[in-house]
Write a structure and sequence with these properties.
Helix content is 33%, strand content 13%. It is α/β, with parallel strands linked by helices. The protein has one domain: Glycosidases (TIM Barrel), CATH 3.20.20.80. Strands 3-4-7-8-9-11-18-19 form an eight-stranded parallel barrel, surrounded by six helices. Helix 8 runs parallel beside helix 10, helix 9 packs antiparallel against helix 10 and helix 18 packs parallel to helix 19. The longest helix is centred in the middle third of the chain and has 28 residues. The chain is globular and about 70 Å long. The N terminus is likely disordered. This is Beta-glucosidase. GO terms for molecular function: beta-glucosidase activity. Belongs to the glycosyl hydrolase 1 family. Keywords: Glycosidase, Hydrolase, Signal. Pfam families: Glyco_hydro_1 (PF00232).
């Protein structure tokens, strides 16, 4: 296998060029909006796919790659991103729209299960019936003009939003009879308004077809993504969207983060709807429910499901089963490919748009400490790539090269679903127009050791299974987990306001290089960062004055990544004019990640075409409700029925960063 070592080199170069924010008070310049031209539309048959042996392994060594020179800004002006760079913010329908039962909208799994299990969502005021769901959220259904005003502050030329499947097709089934679709016309009117308003303001729409809000009717009918019929239902819904909105929408994302949708929704948790989690038995199915809180926990409500045509029909209202997340992932990837096939065959030539998938996943950094030997570090580099293949490649390889990574298939054994030859053909190159990546944090990775210091070995072919597939692998962004899945330091960067999220700027550069090398020559219109951002340290999750992490990075010669903060950075809901509006931590997050993105483009030659900050506004943060704020715009969800938008300093910072770091036409 071909090897390119980049991890440690990128960290060294990035450290030398780390961006420090000194002044964010500069006034924003006049609004700038750009529309990108459609480039090099490529169908699946246009893509040359490498063999497994040719897919690049990205590991890491400072010695193996020639270090790029670091010159001062006085000697050489820094290279800016191109004028057609896609710049904007992102949201998702269920998180911002509200109007959950207005104008004919059908119920989604998020509506149904947050109403049925409200205790699965955090709340600052459980007397407020809207505090644990997206019933009202940001009320963008009625206040979209206010959102556009926020986009203008950051100089957005693109806006990534998602379409609510159940707002268009309440029962999830899109049908066209005698030339007429069975669509909810009020839903169509809303998205026409959104698209037209964006274009009137010189902001290009980037539309996501599915951001986790499956129509509940399909979950009740056949178990949603656990049934193969979901593939064609999604493709028909997508066809309606292409036909109706494709004259104006030139950028389509089929699926957002299939890993989170499937793994968090069908195994882990209860965190993401439909709460099919295996960590505990559904409380409602217990023989004796006395004293049990039936408003929380794992769900059992589901329709009869068939993983693939001809498979056993699983009964309705069953406890969660092993491998549900694996089969959800399998079906959702095929659904993506079928939707892309519809677009390319029926619409792309005339509409001249681009289509791809957005996957998520942590860039993987080989673990090292002061005691790590050179041999151990080399081994950890291999495991960093292996962890990336499991976490990212599982979902990015099929739409790029037509199949799962060989390492995943080998280690999963008979538990791994198999694509048919026809499905492989559909999948191959189905995200060759562009690839979307949602990136937040990185993970360390290493091979697990036994108590005696010897390595845990990978599973043999006979041992291969879901349960044994990662028995020798460790990856996380902290060295241990405490109560409530909180991180035990050291952490890979400072602790942000979510337990899974730490601030580590090289994340984005390392990941972009991993994609660029693995899929060299396969992505015709580059990579788009479709989400990146953070919740600031808050009353729930923070780690001020983290000396353990500081001392760790000092011990390995990288003190610049200790990135500690004091208590003044922690958000205080009683004082929004403090660190909530003056969100210095988030500003520094964006400064570090964006500088690493620029370096990936300018120095590494990565074809990165866009950046969508998450998120435009504070919104419904899934299982965290309204208690965790990712937005660059403040909204008081408990006391302000008007949902007034108040821009934070980070929104102004991004507008200025765009003017200074992107070529202006």
């Amino acid at each position: 296998m071909k090897t390119l070592s980049v991890f440690t080199t990128l960290l060294a170069v990035t450290a030398a060029k780390k961006c420090i924010v000194k002044d964010t008070s500069a006034p924003a310049a006049d609004d700038v909006a750009l529309n990108s031209e459609v480039e090099d539309v490529a169908g699946a048959d246009d893509v040359a796919v490498p063999s497994d042996e040719e897919i690049v392994e990205v590991t890491g060594s400072l010695e193996d790659v020639e270090d790029s020179s670091v010159e001062s800004a006085e000697e050489t002006p820094k290279k800016k991103l191109p004028a057609d760079f896609k710049w904007g913010a992102a949201t998702a329908a269920y998180q911002v729209e509200g109007a959950w039962n207005e104008d004919g909208r059908g119920e989604s799994v998020w509506d149904h299960f947050t109403h049925l299990y409200p205790k699965n969502v955090e709340s600052g005021d459980r007397t407020n019936p809207d505090s644990t769901n997206g019933n009202v959220a940001c009320d963008s259904y009625h206040k979209f003009d206010e959102d556009v005003k926020m986009m203008k502050i950051m100089k957005a030329n693109h806006y990534r939003f998602s379409i609510s499947w159940s707002r268009l097709f309440p029962d999830g089934e899109a049908k066209k009879v005698n030339g007429k679709w069975n669509v909810n016309e009020k839903g169509t009117q809303y998205y026409n308004m959104v698209i037209d308003t964006l274009l009137e303001n010189e902001i290009t729409p980037l539309a996501t077809l599915y951001h986790w809000d499956l129509p509940y009717a399909l979950h009740e009918k056949y178990g949603g993504w656990l049934d193969y019929r979901s593939q064609d239902d999604f493709a028909k819904y997508a066809e309606y969207c292409f036909e109706t909105f494709g004259d104006r929408v030139k950028g389509w994302i089929t699926i957002n983060e299939p890993w989170v949708n499937c793994v968090s929704g069908y195994r882990l948790g209860p965190g993401k709807a439909p709460y099919r989690c295996t960590g505990e038995a559904p409380r409602k199915l217990q023989n004796d429910t006395t004293g049990l809180d039936l408003e929380g926990g794992c769900s059992y409500e589901i329709g009869p499901s068939q993983y693939y045509k001809g498979a056993e029909v699983l009964p309705a209202n069953r406890a969660p089963q092993r491998l549900e997340d694996v089969w959800c992932s399998h079906n959702i990837l095929i659904a993506h490919a079928k939707a892309v096939n519809v677009y390319r065959k029926k619409f792309q030539k005339k509409q001249k748009g681009l289509i791809g998938i957005t996957i998520d996943g942590e860039a993987q950094i080989p673990w090292q400490d002061a005691n790590t030997t050179p041999e151990e570090l080399e081994n950890n580099k291999k495991y960093a790539n292996l962890a990336a293949e499991f976490r990212i490649g599982w979902y990015s390889d099929p739409p790029m090269v037509g199949d799962y990574p060989a390492s995943v298939k080998q280690r999963m054994g008979k538990d791994m679903p198999v694509f048919t030859p026809e499905e492989k053909k559909l999948l191959k190159g189905s995200s060759s127009d562009f690839l979307g990546w949602n990136t937040y944090t990185a993970h360390w990775a290493e091979q697990v050791k036994n108590e005696d210091g010897t390595y845990v070995q990978p599973p043999t072919d006979d041992e291969a299974s879901f349960e044994t597939s990662k028995q020798d692998m460790w990856d996380d962004n902290c060295r241990g987990r405490g109560e409530g899945w909180s991180c035990i330091p050291p952490t890979l960067g400072s602790q942000a306001g979510s337990s899974w999220n730490t601030k580590y700027g090289p994340t984005i550069r390392v990941g972009l290089n991993w994609f660029a090398d693995r899929y060299k020559g396969l992505i015709k219109n580059g990579i788009i960062i479709t989400e990146n951002g953070c919740a600031q340290p808050n009353y729930k999750v923070s780690r001020a004055n983290d000396l353990v992490t500081k001392e760790y990075f000092e011990s390995i010669g990288q003190p610049e990544y200790a990135d500690t903060y004091d208590e003044s950075i922690i958000e205080d809901e009683s004082n929004i004019e403090g660190s909530i509006i003056n969100d210095e931590y988030r500003i520094d997050w964006y400064a570090q990640y964006l500088e690493n993105l620029r370096l990936a483009y300018a120095e590494d030659g990565v074809d990165v075409r866009g950046y969508m900050a998450w998120s435009l506004v504070d919104n419904f943060e899934w299982e965290n409700g309204y208690e965790t704020r990712f937005g660059m715009t403040y909204i008081d969800f408990y006391n302000d029925d008007e949902r007034t938008r108040i821009p934070k300093k980070s929104l102004e910072f991004l507008g200025q960063w765009y003017l200074e770091n992107v070529e202006q036409a």
